[in-house]
Amino acid sequence: MLPLLEEKKEWNSPKEWKEYINKSPLGINVAAFVGHSDLRMKVMGIDRSLTHEDKANKQEQEQMYTLLKEALDEGFIGLSTMDNPWDKMDGNRYWSHKTPSFYSSWKERKALPKLLREKNAVLQGAPNLVTRYNALNYMLASSGLFRKPLKTTMIAMMDLIGDRYIFPLIGFASRAINVLGNANFRMQSPPCPFTVYYDGVDSVMFEEFPSGEALRHLAKELDTRNELIKDPVFRENFKKEIKQKFAPKVWHKDLSKSIITACPDESFVGKNFYELAEEKNLHPVDLFLDTIIQYDKEIKWTTTIANDRKEKYKSLYNFPYNLISFSDAGAHINNMAFYNFPLKMIKIVQDAIDNGKPIMSMEKCIWRLTKEQGDWFNLDCGYLAEGKTADIVIINPKKLHTITEEVEVGTIKEFNNCERLVNRNEGVISRVLVAGKTIFKDDAFVEGYGESKKYGRFLSRVS
To answer: Which Gene3D superfamilies match (predicted)?
Structure first.
């Protein structure tokens, strides 16, 4: 991304970024949070923002407050934060550092939620998914006891294979804080299986336990990493950590549920690591680590970590304190592909209706995917009405059968044809209109789309 930023970037403030967006040839509409990490880097500098030792001083806290206020005044939705240690910096200078927001205490940022509450804006965040207890910070921040509730949304509510208790527990906690705490709190949920694709150990999920984190840290030093993998002590620690039953986990770490999709040794394809280990009379972890040394990213595999039980979809889809709005595929372009999760939800709901066991009405399904979210995020969009801007997607219900869990490899030409995983749903989308103009029809973008014509706009928060 750096060469593209060096070529295109001309903004240094929220207002200037909005101006840039408004004059750019957008295809679809854009609504935006301002990132807490961005604010922290802006006022502290990157070096100081990435340590536990340095905290923002009073003047820097005031600068962050001023920048957030400017963003909200320009129509930004709110503030997006990150307390999860898995998400790391990239590049050469700060490789494997956690993002700046992680190093910020809630005491340091306390003025920011106060401003969001005053402006009726949104606090969005990801809690620490290792310790999990700071999820309470987000819930309590939303509470409206003796004050105005703060719209707060947190990632993510899922039926985890590795931790079946978290789904009902987070549901109970969300209901309790909204009902008893007079909060305006929402989880975010993907409505489909949360399937992850790995190239070797190239996935954020390995950040969840120390041995996996050590492998990821050495991703640019393969010789050193492979020496670490060969170390018997490291292997023993890896085996202990991967089978810990009561440690908080998102990834189930079950190598029997991990299916190899590609490998130079074609006899591996279609099998899981347990099967291969039995064939070779090895411990599954030893087999797994040996293949990483031998093939690195050339061995590709996949596993589903959440939302595998379709019988749970009815409660997930109808839970009033979540938003069907979480994908994460845009952040992990080689590991996930459910950009089409709204279409998947529509297909699942329609299939249930056709089978005589409805999850919900189709009208409610569409509302949950559109108007509910437009209203909650304070955006003037998400529904059809006379006088409103005509942003419309037309779906062919006869083609819903083409929506599957299959993924393909596509490229992003703007990023030097960087590969990513994509979804294809042939024939499902008949037409897409933005501001009353057709941009997509019959599985193809219109001539000139993505070049100089402007269709979309910056969606400002409605105060």
So the answer is: Metal-dependent hydrolases, Urease, subunit C, domain 1
**Cα separation of 319 and 171, whole Å?**
8
CB count within 10 Å of CB 114 equals: 14
Domains of the chain: 2-193+309-384 (3.20.20.140), 196-306 (no CATH)
pLDDT digits (tens, 9 = 90+) for 218-227: 999 999 999 9
Ordered DSSP codes for 366-425: HHHHTHHHHHHTTBS-SS--TTS---EEEE-GGGGGG--S--EEEEEGGGTTEEEEE---
Average pLDDT over residues 325-346: 92
Q: Supply the DSSP string of 295-352, one letter for each residue.
A: HGGGSEEEEEEE---GGGHHHHHH-TTEES----TTT-TTT---TTHHHHHHHHHHHH
Containing 227, the helix (H) or strand (E) segment is: helix 222-230
Give the residue from 89, 76, 81, 75 showing the smallest Cα distance to 40. Answer: 81
Q: Which residues make beta-bridge pairs with 429?
A: 395
User: How far does CA 324 lie from the centroid of its chain?
Assistant: 12
Q: What is the pTM of this model?
A: 0.94
Contact 407, 399 (CB under 8 A): no
Which of the given ranges, 8-17, 182-191, 236-245, 435-444, has the highest pLDDT on average?
Answer: 182-191
**Alpha-carbon dihedral sign for residues 364, 369, 374, 377:** positive
Is residue 121 helix, strand or coil? coil
Strand partners, 431: 394, 441
Say how many C-beta atoms besides its own lie within 10 A of residue 21's C-beta. 15
451: how many CB neighbours lie within 10 A of its CB? 7
